[in-house]
C-alpha cells in the first residue's frame, strides 16, 4: 500500500473536485492547503474530499508534517504553489520538477535568459527594478513593450507600453520608491492576423519516464485589450505546417528547461516571423482538464497524478481534428458594478452544440474597477468546423443576459454586448 | 422514473435555479459547482438518500448517481425494502432470501432437526467468539442487564412474554457452530424453551447471586438459546436480569430486547396488545450481503489500511497484541447544563453532537499523548442495513473502525468539523470487519476506542402502565485496552462518560489524566470553564 498523494492546494488550474475525481483511483488524497481567501471558501469541500493539512509557511514544520504522511507523490495545480511543491518533492525524493527548474518556470526573467542562452528564442527582455533605469531598458527592448510581473500567471498586471509617458504612469505604482520590486519588460510580440480567432496558442505537454510528449495545441479566442482572455478550443485553427512549427518551438523550449516529471502549459504567440514563446508554465493550463474530459474523455489531473507517482503514461494527442470543442468566458465590465441577475442559462443550454453553461458570479457579487481578466461564466460546447464557431458563439452570447447596477443605474447586458465592450 | 431518481431530480432543480433537469443532464453543465453540490448532498441525506460529496462528483448525472447507489451496499431506495432497486430485486436475491439460502447445499444437508434456518456467522461474530474462547475469561463479551421493576410478577404471563419475544427475533433462538460446516454458521432454531429461572424471595439477594454465578461461567454459545433470564420475584416488585453473548446482539438491540420484553409483559398484564411492529425478515441476510460486499472491496481494505497505518498512539506494539482485560472503570457525569452547552455548540459549529464529543475525545487524546499529528481512535459504528424498520432488528450490526485525524488543529470547532469529515469519509466502508483491518495491518489499528450511544428506545418504557421499571444495572466487557463510552441517558449511568481500561496496560493516574483532559475539552467546546 502506497502513501497518499499530497496535493499542494490553492486557487489554480484544477478545483478540489477535479482533483478528487482525477486522483481517485491512484490513492488517497491529502490536500496541503495554503491559507487564502479561496481555500477558506472551499475548505468545507476539501475536507470532504480528502484529508486536509494546513500549510503553515514554516518550511521545517511543513516538511515534517508531509514526511509523516509518507506520501507516494506530491504535486500541485497552482502556479504560486510550485516552489513549495518542488522543495517538498526534493526533500522527500519524489518525482517533480527540480528546485532549479521550478525557479526557471516561475521567474520569467530567468526563463527568458535560459531560453535565449539555449538558442530557443530571442525575445528582447530586461528586468527593471528602478524607474531611473527605464531609458536604458527601453533602448534595449524597444517600443512598444510589455511590462509584466516576474512571477505570476495569466494576464494580471500585464501592460502594453507604447511611449515614455505611459511607461512612467504604469511603472510608478509597480516600482514604488523605497521598496524592492522588479518587473519584466519585453518586446511586444505582434501577432499575425488571426481572423475570428486569437493570434496566440498554448501547447499542453507532459514530461515523464518516457520523455516529453505534447497533448494538444490549444487555439484561443481573441484577447480583449489589454490582455483579457476569453476562451480556448481544440484543435487550434492553424495549418499543419504551423502546428509543426509550434510544437517544434515548444519542444526546444521545454528541453532547455531540464523538466522533471509533470505537466506544462506553454503560451506561444503566432507572429509574422513565426511562433514565439510568451512563457512556459510548469503546471496544468487553466480549464484544460475540463476541455480534455469533454473532448476526449481524458483526465489530465489523473495524468498529473500518474506522473507524480513516477508512472509511465500513454495518452494520445487529445486535440483530434474532426470536431471542434470549445470553452468561452464572458468578461465582467471593467467599471465597478454589482451583479443583480443572470438569465438565459436554461435557454443557452438548449442550443444545439452547447454542452454546458456555468455562472461563476452570483447575484449580489460586487466587482471593483479592473481591466484584467475577470470571468463571469464558462460556456462549453462543440461543432463540426472552426467556421461554425463564430455563429454558434454569437447565438449563445445573445441568450445570456446579465443585469448590473452600475454607477449610472441598472443595465441589462447580453454576453455578446459585454464581449464587445458595450460603452 | 424511479422514486430515487425523481427525488434527486427535484433536489437538483431546487439548487440549480429551477430549470428543467433530466436524469441524464450533467450537474456541472447545468451550472453546478462544488458548493452547490454540498447543499445537494445535505438535502439528499435529509431525504434518506445516502450520498456523499464525492459521489456527486464521480457520478455527475442523476442516472449515473442512482445506478451507482443501487450497485452499492444493496441500498433499497428511500422507501425501504419495498423500493424498486432493493436487494430483494437482485437476480440472486430470491434464492438468497430462502431459508439456508446463503449456505452451501451440502451444509444444509448436515443441519440438525429443529433448525429452521441458518446463515454464515458474520466476521465480527466469529471474532468475538474466538476472543472469548482464547481469553479463558468467562466475563469477556458476556453482556448482562438488570432492572428492578415495580409491579406484580406473574410467572405464566412473563414466560409467555419471553416466548413471544423469542418468536419475534430469530437471533434469540440461535446458536453458533464454528466447525461442522464449510463456514462458521449461526443456526436458527424453530422453537426454544423460554430460558427463564424464577426465584421467589424477600430481598434482591437471589438476583445478585445469579449475576455473580452467571459471570463466573462462560455462556455456551453452541447451544440454544444463548439468552438467559432470571427473575427474583418479591411481593410487589421483581428483579429481572438478562444475560446474552455479545455475538448475538449489539447495545441498541439489547435496549430493544429489554423494552420489548417489558412491553410484552405489560401488555399481558393489562390485556391490551403490545403493538410492536414486526422487524424486517431479511435483516440479517441484508447485513451479511453488505458485509460480504465490504470484504470483497479492495478499496475498503486500502482505505482502512491507510487510515490506521501510522505509529501507534500509546502501546508498544511488540508487547501488546491480543485481547486486553479492561476491568477498571472511571466515570464522570455530564449533567444537564453541560449537555445543553454541548448541544448548542454542536448546532453552532454545524456538526452532530456525536462528532462534537468525538472531536473533544481526539483533542483529549492529543494533549494526553502529546501528539498533534496522526491521532487515531477506534470508533464504534452502526452497520445496520439502511432499510425501513432496520432499527427493529435484534442482532449484531456493529463494527469498530480506525478514524485518523492527520493534523489536530488548535481550534476545537475546526477539529470537530475535521472529525465529522473523517467519519463521513469512512462511512461507505464502515462494514469492513475490524478483524480484517487488523489482519492486514499486523496489529490492532488503534489503542483507544470510542463509542457514542443514545438508546432512546428506552423512552418507550414511560408508556407502560401495569409495571414501572426503576433502577438499572449492567455489565459488559469488551477486549479493547482503553474504551471510552459517551452515553446519553444510559440506564445505569445516565448521561455520562465511562472509561474502561486494562490496569496491566495503563495505570489509574494515566486513565485519570485522559479523563480530565476529556472533561476539559467538553467544557471548552461548550464555552464553560471547569
UniProtKB/TrEMBL annotation, chain A:
Q: Which UniProt keywords apply?
A: ATP-binding, Ligase, Nucleotide-binding
Superkingdom of the source species: Bacteria
Q: By its UniProt entry, which Gene3D superfamilies does this protein fall under?
A: ATP-grasp fold, B domain
Keyword Nucleotide-binding set for record: yes
Limits of the ATP-grasp domain:
112-309
What PROSITE patterns is this protein classified in?
ATP_GRASP (PS50975)
Known InterPro entries for this protein? ATP-dep_AA_Ligase, ATP-grasp
Q: What name does this protein carry?
A: ATP-grasp domain-containing protein
**Source species:** Micromonospora echinofusca
Origin organism lineage: Bacteria, Bacillati, Actinomycetota, Actinomycetes, Micromonosporales
From TrEMBL, chain B:
Arranged from A to Z, the UniProt key words for this protein are:
Phosphopantetheine, Phosphoprotein
Entry keyword annotation includes Zinc: no
Q: Where is this region: Disordered?
A: 70-101
What are the names of the required cofactors? pantetheine 4'-phosphate
Spell out the InterPro entries in the cross-references: ACP-like_sf (IPR036736), CAT-like_dom_sf (IPR023213), Condensation_dom (IPR001242), PP-bd_ACP (IPR009081), Ppantetheine_attach_site (IPR006162)
Per the UniProt record, one Pfam family is Condensation
Query: Looking at the keywords, is Cell inner membrane present?
Result: no
Source superkingdom: Bacteria
Please state every residue range assigned to the domain named Carrier.
Answer: 1-73
Q: Which PANTHER family match?
A: FATTY ACID SYNTHASE, NONRIBOSOMAL PEPTIDE SYNTHETASE
The name under which this protein is listed is: Carrier domain-containing protein
Amino acid at each position: 500500500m502506497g502513501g497518499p498523494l499530497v496535493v499542494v492546494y490553492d486557487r489554480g488550474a484544477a478545483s478540489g473536485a477535479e482533483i478528487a475525481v482525477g486522483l481517485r483511483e491512484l490513492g488517497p488524497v491529502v490536500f496541503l492547503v495554503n491559507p487564502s481567501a479561496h481555500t477558506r471558501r472551499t475548505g468545507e469541500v476539501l475536507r470532504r474530499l480528502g484529508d486536509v493539512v494546513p500549510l503553515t509557511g514554516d518550511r521545517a514544520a511543513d516538511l515534517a508534517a508531509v514526511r509523516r504522511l509518507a506520501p507516494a507523490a506530491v504535486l500541485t495545480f497552482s502556479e504560486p504553489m510550485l516552489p513549495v511543491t518542488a522543495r517538498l518533492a526534493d526533500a522527500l525524493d519524489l518525482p517533480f520538477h527540480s528546485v532549479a527548474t521550478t525557479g526557471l518556470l516561475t521567474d520569467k526573467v530567468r526563463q527568458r535568459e535560459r531560453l535565449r542562452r539555449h538558442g530557443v528564442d530571442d525575445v528582447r527582455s530586461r528586468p527593471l527594478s528602478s524607474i531611473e533605469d527605464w531609458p536604458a531598458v527601453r533602448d534595449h527592448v524597444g517600443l512598444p513593450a510589455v511590462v509584466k510581473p516576474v512571477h505570476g500567471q495569466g494576464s494580471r498586471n500585464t501592460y502594453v507600453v507604447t511611449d515614455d509617458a505611459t511607461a512612467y504612469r504604469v511603472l510608478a505604482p509597480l516600482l514604488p520608491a523605497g521598496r524592492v520590486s522588479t518587473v519584466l519588460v519585453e518586446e511586444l510580440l505582434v501577432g499575425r492576423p488571426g481572423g475570428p480567432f486569437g493570434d496566440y496558442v498554448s501547447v499542453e505537454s507532459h514530461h515523464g519516464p518516457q520523455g516529453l510528449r505534447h497533448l494538444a495545441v490549444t487555439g484561443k479566442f481573441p484577447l480583449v485589450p489589454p490582455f483579457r482572455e476569453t476562451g480556448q478550443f481544440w484543435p487550434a485553427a492553424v495549418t499543419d505546417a504551423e502546428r509543426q512549427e509550434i510544437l517544434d518551438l515548444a519542444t526546444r523550449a521545454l528541453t532547455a528547461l531540464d523538466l522533471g516529471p509533470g505537466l506544462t502549459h506553454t503560451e506561444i504567440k503566432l507572429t509574422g516571423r513565426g511562433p514565439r514563446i510568451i512563457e512556459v508554465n510548469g503546471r496544468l493550463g487553466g480549464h484544460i482538464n475540463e476541455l480534455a474530459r469533454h473532448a476526449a474523455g481524458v483526465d489530465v489531473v489523473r495524468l498529473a497524478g500518474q506522473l507524480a507517482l513516477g508512472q509511465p503514461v500513454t495518452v494520445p494527442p487529445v486535440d483530434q481534428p474532426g470536431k471542434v470543442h470549445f470553452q468561452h468566458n464572458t468578461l465582467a465590465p471593467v467599471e465597478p458594478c454589482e451583479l443583480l441577475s443572470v438569465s438565459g442559462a436554461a435557454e443557452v443550454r438548449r442550443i444545439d452544440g452547447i454542452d454546458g453553461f456555468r455562472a461563476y458570479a452570483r447575484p449580489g457579487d460586487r466587482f471593483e474597477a479592473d481591466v484584467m481578466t475577470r470571468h463571469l461564466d464558462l460556456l462549453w460546447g462543440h461543432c463540426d468546423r472552426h467556421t461554425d464557431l463564430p455563429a454558434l458563439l454569437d447565438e449563445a452570447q445573445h441568450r445570456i443576459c446579465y443585469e448590473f447596477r452600475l454607477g449610472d443605474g441598472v443595465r441589462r447586458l447580453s454576453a455578446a454586448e459585454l464581449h464587445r465592450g458595450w460603452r | 422514473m424511479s422514486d430515487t431518481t425523481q427525488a434527486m431530480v427535484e433536489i437538483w432543480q431546487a439548487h440549480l435555479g429551477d430549470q428543467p433537469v433530466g436524469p441524464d443532464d450533467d450537474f456541472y453543465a447545468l451550472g453546478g459547482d462544488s458548493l452547490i453540490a454540498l447543499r445537494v448532498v445535505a438535502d439528499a441525506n435529509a431525504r434518506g438518500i445516502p450520498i456523499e460529496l464525492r459521489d456527486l462528483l464521480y457520478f455527475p448525472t442523476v442516472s449515473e448517481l442512482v445506478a451507482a447507489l443501487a450497485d452499492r451496499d444493496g441500498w433499497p431506495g428511500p422507501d425501504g425494502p419495498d423500493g424498486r432497486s432493493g436487494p430483494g430485486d437482485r437476480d440472486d436475491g430470491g434464492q438468497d432470501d430462502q431459508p439456508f439460502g446463503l449456505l452451501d447445499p451440502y451444509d444444509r444437508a448436515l443441519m440438525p432437526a429443529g433448525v429452521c434456518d441458518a446463515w454464515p456467522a458474520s466476521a465480527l461474530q466469529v471474532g468475538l467468539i474466538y476472543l472469548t474462547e482464547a481469553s479463558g475469561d468467562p466475563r469477556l463479551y458476556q453482556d448482562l442487564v438488570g432492572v428492578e421493576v415495580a409491579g406484580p410478577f406473574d410467572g405464566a404471563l412473563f414466560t409467555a412474554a419471553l416466548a413471544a419475544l423469542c418468536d419475534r427475533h430469530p437471533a434469540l433462538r440461535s446458536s453458533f457452530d464454528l466447525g461442522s460446516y464449510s463456514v462458521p454458521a449461526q443456526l436458527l432454531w424453530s422453537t426454544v424453551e423460554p430460558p427463564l429461572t424464577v426465584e421467589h424471595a424477600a430481598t434482591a439477594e437471589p438476583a445478585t447471586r445469579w449475576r455473580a454465578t452467571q459471570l463466573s461461567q462462560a455462556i455456551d454459545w453452541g447451544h440454544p438459546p444463548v439468552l438467559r433470564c432470571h427473575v427474583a420475584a418479591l411481593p410487589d416488585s421483581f428483579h429481572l436480569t438478562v444475560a446474552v453473548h455479545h455475538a448475538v446482539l449489539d447495545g441498541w438491540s439489547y435496549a430493544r430486547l429489554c423494552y420489548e420484553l417489558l412491553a410484552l409483559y405489560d401488555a399481558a398484564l393489562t390485556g391490551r396488545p403490545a403493538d410492536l411492529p414486526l422487524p424486517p425478515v431479511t435483516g440479517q441476510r441484508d447485513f451479511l450481503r453488505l458485509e460480504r460486499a465490504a470484504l470483497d472491496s479492495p478499496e475498503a481494505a486500502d482505505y482502512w489500511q491507510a487510515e490506521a497505518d501510522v505509529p501507534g498512539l500509546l502501546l508498544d506494539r511488540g508487547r501488546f497484541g491480543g485481547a486486553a482485560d479492561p476491568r477498571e472503570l472511571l466515570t464522570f457525569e455530564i449533567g444537564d447544563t453541560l449537555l445543553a452547552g454541548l448541544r448548542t455548540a454542536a448546532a453552532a459549529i454545524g456538526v452532530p453532537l456525536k462528532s462534537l464529543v468525538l472531536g473533544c475525545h481526539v483533542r483529549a487524546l492529543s494533549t494526553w499523548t502529546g501528539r498533534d499529528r496522526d491521532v487515531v481512535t477506534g470508533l464504534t459504528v452502526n452497520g445496520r442495513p439502511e432499510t425501513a424498520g432496520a432499527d427493529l432488528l435484534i442482532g449484531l450490526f456493529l463494527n469498530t473502525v480506525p478514524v485518523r485525524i492527520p493534523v489536530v488543529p488548535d481550534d476545537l470547532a475546526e477539529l470537530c468539523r475535521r472529525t465529522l469529515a473523517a467519519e463521513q469519509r469512512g462511512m461507505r466502508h464502515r462494514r469492513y470487519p475490524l478483524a480484517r483491518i487488523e489482519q492486514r495491518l499486523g496489529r490492532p489499528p488503534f489503542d483507544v476506542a470510542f463509542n457514542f450511544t443514545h438508546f432512546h428506545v428506552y423512552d418507550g418504557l414511560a408508556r407502560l402502565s401495569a409495571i414501572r421499571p426503576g433502577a438499572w444495572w449492567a455489565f459488559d466487557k469488551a477486549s479493547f485496552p482503553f474504551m471510552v463510552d459517551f452515553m446519553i441517558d444510559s440506564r445505569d449511568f445516565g448521561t455520562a462518560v465511562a472509561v474502561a481500561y486494562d490496569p496491566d496496560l495503563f495505570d489509574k493516574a494515566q486513565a485519570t489524566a485522559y479523563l480530565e483532559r476529556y472533561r476539559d475539552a467538553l467544557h471548552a467546546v461548550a464555552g464553560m470553564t471547569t
